[in-house]
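Quarterly update from the structural biology core.
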Amino acid sequence: MTARVFGAVDIGASGGRVIAGVVDGDRTTLHTLHRFPNGAAHREGHLRWDLTGLYAEVLAGLRSLATAYPQVESIGIDTWAVDYGLLDADGRLLAEPVSYRDSRTEAVLDQVHAQLGPAQLYAMNGLQFLPFTTVYQLAAERLSPLWDRAAHVVLLPDLLAYWLTGELATEETNASTTGLLDIRTGTWSTEVLALLDLPAGALPPLQRPGELRGTLRPEVLAATGLPATIVVTAVGSHDTASAVVAVPATDRSFAYVSSGTWSLVGIELDKPVLTMDAQRANFTNEGGVDGRTRFLRNVGGLWLLQESLREWKAQGLRLDLDSLLTEAETLPPGGPIVNVDDDRFIPPGKMPARIAAAAVRDGHDDPQTPAAVVRCVLDSLATSYALTVRQAVELGSQEVDTIHIVGGGCQNRLLCQLTADLSGIPVTAGPVEATALGNVLVQARAHGAAPETLEEIRAGLARTEDLRRFRPS
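Predicted structure, tokenized:
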């Protein structure tokens, strides 16, 4: 059997990659061809992404892909959720997209809830309350001078796909994170669109993972050297949706933690849970590949560590994360725990001081050294992971015998062991590149190069991936 190649564009809030996925029978091997940084910066009155710059990096990565793997068949794109770009009637981007970490939604939360209360919104879209969800961002956007010129609201992975193909569509898993999708019908919610005075045509039509988005525009072919036969295939364009595809589970009795800048902690169900108890626990029902429901909570993530390291570097401290983790592991248990979901941790800047202040507010001692801050973050994350899994099991009425930690956090041995200890459930760590694997395998399946069911895909990963296991101590 000849190996087949699929390209994954995988962009997170702190960086992106263009990856070649080589599918050879049961085994999928990833090769990172181009890596680039990402981050939001203050300009034009808001915290914004440089999506134009990211697109240039994507093109550079696709040039490398064409050189290394001229037989590549398809490209899939995933990014973080909820953020979007505004296009005018001619398809031009009106401004660089505002980041979900911008504070602009604070002024409109009460206004939205006065028209559609949290309980009403939950019944319609099934989403946990997060102050940066797209529905709130668009309520704030209506107050901007760009609103009257906007013809299309396009989520970021779909915007990159539009620039590559000229085709406008909205991939379903990412649409499910916006608060604009009706959980009952799987279509755009007429009630929410009316609240925002948003014409239905402003939101591109919905598309399922595995469907063809389009072929590359001639100028993209010329700029990258990719073959004219290559297509863009829709994948789980919300990075967590792709990551959950690649959970190496051998049955359905699992919980997952997609641990990166954010931690997405939950279980996979066949249908949403829309009870008052689920709303009170702030659980969300997001769309998964193959119509599955990702019943989960957004939990604070490695952002707290990333921002702490950035702050220490800005202060001139030469600190190595591996050394800090080793030192943190030697600290005794029982240290301070903070609420990693606190909205005060969402903006960038001065993270160690904010963590220390949160510890003191909650009646704990101030973690006074960098290693103590790191241990506080990991203890707090593991505590939240264990609690969230327990709540998911109760609310979703599904037993769990394994917690799968995928993404960057699976490399953190202390975090994995603490999660096993606090939950009392064995932890399987890996794969690190779950998002890219899920992206590639959904493409491969669409083109006849991977098994047809998620269960078969996951069983194959369980056989071939390098996984680590942690037993509760």
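The radius of gyration is 21 Å.
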